[in-house]
Design goal:
36% of the residues lie in helices and 20% in strands. It is built from 12 helices and 17 strands. A hairpin with a 3-residue loop joins β9 (196-198) and β10. The longest helix is centred in the last third of the chain and has 23 residues, at 374-396.
Length: 398
C-alpha cells in the first residue's frame, strides 16, 4: 500500500467525522484557552483555589440559608490541568484527525463534534428567563446534548406538576427532563434541593447573585451587552449555596461511588449569561472556582450561538467521570479548610448524606501566581502547532 492509498484512507476518516477546517480551528482555539501558560492572556480559563473562613456547614441548614465566607489563595491554576484526560483526547484527535480507538473516547468526541457542527445555536429571550428556566434551557440545549445520557431531573418545587418545558423560542422543542426530588444532604448538616440534576451525577444551579463586570450596572451596561460582559469577581463570595451544594455533592459521590479514581466533583453555576464551574474534592479538601465564561454571543434577533470555550468547558464537565483527572499534586496543598470547619459533623458528611445569606464579596486584588503542569505545557505547544497548520491550510488550498 503506497503513500497515496494511506492518504486516501486518512482523508476518508476525516470525511467520516466530518470536521472542517473552521471547526478544527474553533475547537483548537477554545481548548487552547484552557491550557495557555501565559499570565497575560485575558481569555484564559483558570481555576482559583479558595479556603472556607467561616460557615454554618455544621448546622442543619438548608442551602438557601447557607452561609460561607471564602477567601481566595494568591495562586491560580489552568482549567485544563484538572481535565488532562479530556485535553489529551481532543489534542490527539485534532492532531491526527482520526477518532480514537477507545470506544468511550470516540463516543464522547462524536458528541462534541456533532454539537459543534449542528447544534450550537439557540433562540431564546434569555434576559426574560428566571434562574431555574435558564438552568433548564441550558441543560436541554447544551449540557444534556454533550452528555452520554441526556436525562435530567428538575426541582419540582419550582413548577408544580407540569411537564418540564424548555423556555427557548422553538415551540416544538422537546426536553429529556422530568420533575422530581432533587434534594441532597442530611437534615443535620447542609441540605436542600438543587435546580437540575443531570443523570444523578452533576448539579446545574442558577446563581442568585450573578457576578457583574466592574462598572456595569443594570440600566446601563456601559456599551457592552450582558452577553459580552466580562466578569472578574468571585462567584463563591456571592453564592454560598453553590459552595454548600458542591461540597455536599462531592461527599455524596464519594459515598455512592467509592470505586472512582478521584472525588473532584464539578457543579455548574449559570447566570448573567455566564457559566462558572465550581469543584470540590472531598478526599483532599480542595475547593476550586473557574473563571466566568461567556455562554453565548448574539447571532441575530433573539438568536445566539454558544461560545466555543463554553462548549468545550461544558463537554469536559458533563463527562467528568471520563475526562476529569482530579487535582494535581500542586493543588493539594491549597486546602479548602472544610474539614477544619465541620470537624464535629465530619462523620455525617462522610457517611450519612443522601441523594434526594450573608455574602461577603471577596475582591481579590492580589496578583496571583499562575501554575500549570508540564503536561499542559506540552499540550499547549501541540495546540499552537494545530492552529498554525489549520490556518496555513485554510489560507492555502481553499
Ligand atoms: Zn428548547
Amino acid at each position: 500500500m503506497g503513500g497515496k492509498m494511506a492518504s486516501a484512507m486518512k482523508r476518508k476518516c476525516v470525511i467520516d467525522v466530518d470536521i472542517r477546517h473552521d471547526s478544527v480551528l474553533r475547537v483548537a482555539n477554545a481548548t487552547h484557552t484552557l491550557c495557555i501558560a501565559n499570565q497575560r492572556f485575558s481569555d484564559a480559563v483558570k481555576l482559583s483555589p479558595h479556603r472556607i473562613n467561616r460557615s454554618n456547614a455544621g448546622g442543619g441548614v438548608p442551602f438557601s440559608k447557607a452561609f460561607c465566607e471564602t477567601i481566595g489563595y494568591a495562586v491560580e491554576f489552568m482549567f485544563g490541568d484538572v481535565f488532562q484526560s479530556g485535553i489529551k483526547v481532543i489534542t490527539d484527535f485534532l492532531y491526527q484527525k482520526t477518532l480514537p480507538a477507545d470506544k468511550m473516547d470516540s463516543l464522547l468526541l462524536r458528541k462534541l463534534l456533532d454539537f459543534v457542527k449542528d447544534e450550537r445555536r439557540i433562540k431564546v429571550y434569555h434576559e426574560k428567563l428566571s434562574g431555574t428556566e435558564l438552568a433548564v434551557t441550558l441543560t436541554n440545549h447544551l449540557f444534556g446534548k454533550l452528555a452520554t445520557l441526556g436525562s435530567y431531573l428538575v426541582d419540582r418545587c419550582d413548577a408544580g406538576e407540569k411537564e418540564v418545558e424548555c423556555s427557548c423560542i422553538d415551540q416544538s422543542c422537546e426536553t429529556a427532563g422530568r420533575y422530581g426530588d432533587t434534594s441532597i444532604g442530611n437534615i443535620d448538616v447542609w441540605h436542600g434541593d438543587v435546580d437540575v440534576l443531570i443523570n444523578n451525577d452533576l448539579i446545574v444551579q442558577h446563581l442568585k447573585d450573578p457576578p457583574r463586570s466592574r462598572g456595569e450596572n443594570e440600566s446601563s451596561p456601559g456599551g457592552q451587552t450582558p452577553v459580552e460582559a466580562k466578569v472578574n469577581c468571585s462567584v463563591l463570595a456571592g453564592n454560598p449555596h453553590i459552595t454548600a451544594q458542591t461540597t455536599v455533592f462531592s461527599f455524596l459521590q464519594k459515598k455512592t461511588h467509592p470505586e472512582r479514581d478521584h472525588f473532584l466533583i464539578p457543579c455548574f453555576g449559570v447566570g448573567n449569561s455566564t457559566l462558572v464551574v465550581v469543584f470540590y474534592d472531598s478526599e483532599h479538601d480542595v475547593l476550586l472556582e473557574s473563571t466566568h465564561i461567556p455562554l453565548f454571543r448574539s447571532s441575530g434577533c433573539d438568536e445566539y450561538e454558544f461560545n466555543d470555550t463554553a462548549i468545550i468547558v461544558s463537554w469536559l464537565t458533563v463527562n467528568y467521570k471520563y475526562l476529569c483527572s482530579g487535582v494535581t499534586e500542586d493543588m493539594k496543598s491549597f486546602k479548602g479548610d472544610f474539614f477544619e470547619d465541620v470537624r464535629e459533623k465530619m462523620k455525617i458528611y462522610e457517611g450519612e448524606l443522601q441523594l434526594g445569606n450573608i455574602a461577603y464579596p471577596v475582591w481579590n486584588v492580589l496578583k496571583k501566581s499562575l501554575q500549570f503542569s508540564s503536561f499542559l505545557e506540552e499540550q499547549e505547544m501541540k495546540l499552537v502547532a494545530i492552529i498554525h497548520r489549520e490556518m496555513r491550510e485554510q489560507g492555502g488550498i481553499e
